[in-house]
Amino acid sequence: MKHIIQAAQFACCLLLLLVLSGCGDTSREPAVANAVEPVAVEQASAEEIRQAKNAISTFAVALKAELTSAMQQGGPLNAIEVCNTRAILIREQVSEDQGLQLSRVSMRNRNPDNAPLNWQRPVLESFEQLREAGGDPNELEWSEIATIAGRRQFRYMKAIPAGGLCLQCHGQSIAQDVSEVLTALYPQDRATGFSEGDIRGAFVVTRDL
Question: Which end of the chain has fewer CB within 10 Å, C or N?
């Protein structure tokens, strides 16, 4: 798969991105995204990338107030509840308002619905390789326009690094009460054992053109 890894400043609250990586999002993408190999690939425009970043930022800002309030009132347990019940509703609203599809994926996913599609897996692998080579996971992004069976689709991915509050639910040492809630909500959870700076997954934005 041809792709371009771009390094750029991401105007979004990093702390929130770390927390959001634990939310139970169950979004799926259009059927075109499941194709194994695109017929043709071209470079995405700066405007498409700007819109993708804006969608992620809008989602983050909208959820930030609820997560912050939940953490202040009841710690990680309250934050898990907000992620489980509210994150998907906010994501769906942003997707509808901006005419795109916003989701998240991970090689070590918490929710089985967040497993990467065929075209997303090599991007995640590339992010990991760049991180291991010394790259800053906060600056890793990727984009393309793929044509499959005559349909063109814009695709964008932004790495989500682990750290800070994220490690309370995804780290190597998780409080017992938090672990019990996570097990009840996500019995197939694979998203633990991370250290600060690891790549938890990626935000994904797609738009049919």
Answer: C
